[in-house]
Amino acid sequence: MSLIAASGVSVGFGGPPVLRDVDFRIDPGEIVTIVGPNGSGKSVLLRVLLGIVQPRRGRVMRKAGLRIGYVPQRLHIDAALPMSVARFLSLPRRQTAHRIAEVLTRVGVPGSEAKQMTVLSGGQFQRVLLARALLADPEILVLDEPTQGLDQPGVAAFYRLIEDVRAELGCAVLSVSHDLHVVMSASDRVICLNGHVCCEGTPKVVSNAPEYRALFGYGTGGALALYRHDHDHSHDHDHPHGQEAGR
For every one of its 247 residues, what pLDDT tens digit does the chain have, with 9 covering 90 and above? Predict the structure, then answer.
């Protein structure tokens, strides 16, 4: 049984449809990545799948009691608001010190409980967001372009961490990104979206599909090799949270 399945989904907000006749499914333990250009409806589809946005037509089915861990595209915390990592991880449900220490170690930022969220680097911040998602003991981990602002080594380190988490927990992973530069080499399926499903298949099949090439050209041929490189996790500490790094 699929964790989430959508059939014939169309979405509009008073104007032309943002999504048209989209079919989707993700099964237990599967890694699915949605790619597409800006404005292609990726985040809208994600919100529909999560039940935040209701489709104009079609239907979405989710496994009863499905546990979802969500890592957002970005999260702003006011610099004037005192918010330690430990406090952040205890919202909205209080967590034990042991559980917090355990999950921070799991995502590669051990001992950061007392640090203020606003002083974390971009890579550290995203790892804390991932830690918060893992506290839900998710059956599916949902990532909405979680590496914006990180340089390529930082992106590589983050997605390798996701691969490790998936291997350890056995959870499904649904990742949304703007192109194949942030697709895990281990993705089972990639869905190329541009208001509708243009093409679907393994990363290699999609990257060579005419529909994908029409959207992205031929400049991403080496993208899938990115996460096979042995970058050190320290790379993602180079850029303070909130600053854009070169991509």
Answer: 899 999 999 999 988 899 999 999 999 999 999 999 888 999 999 999 999 999 999 999 999 999 999 998 778 888 888 999 999 999 989 999 999 999 999 999 999 999 999 999 999 999 999 999 999 999 999 999 888 778 888 888 888 899 899 999 999 999 998 767 667 666 899 999 999 999 999 988 888 899 988 888 765 444 444 444 333 333 344 444 543 333 3
What single letter denotes the amino acid at residue 122? G
The CATH architecture one would assign to domain 1-67+138-216 is: 3-Layer(aba) Sandwich (3.40)
Please state the domain extents for the chain. 1-67+138-216, 77-135
CB 159 within 8 A of CB 184: yes
Are 187 and 227 in contact by the 8 Å Cβ rule? The answer is no
In DSSP notation, the chain reads: --SEEEEEEEE-SSSS-SEEEEEEEE-TT-EEEEE--TTSSHHHHHHHHTTSS--SEEEEEE-TT--EEEE-S-----TTS--BHHHHHTSSS---HHHHHHHHHHTT-TT-TTSBGGGSBHHHHHHHHHHHHHTT--SEEEEESTTTT--HHHHHHHHHHHHHHHHHH--EEEEE-SSGGG--TT-SEEEEESSSEEEEE-HHHHHTSHHHHHHHTTTTTTGGGGGGS---GGGGGSSBTTPPPP-
Asked whether the beta carbons of 185 and 228 are under 8 A apart, the reply is yes
pTM: 0.84
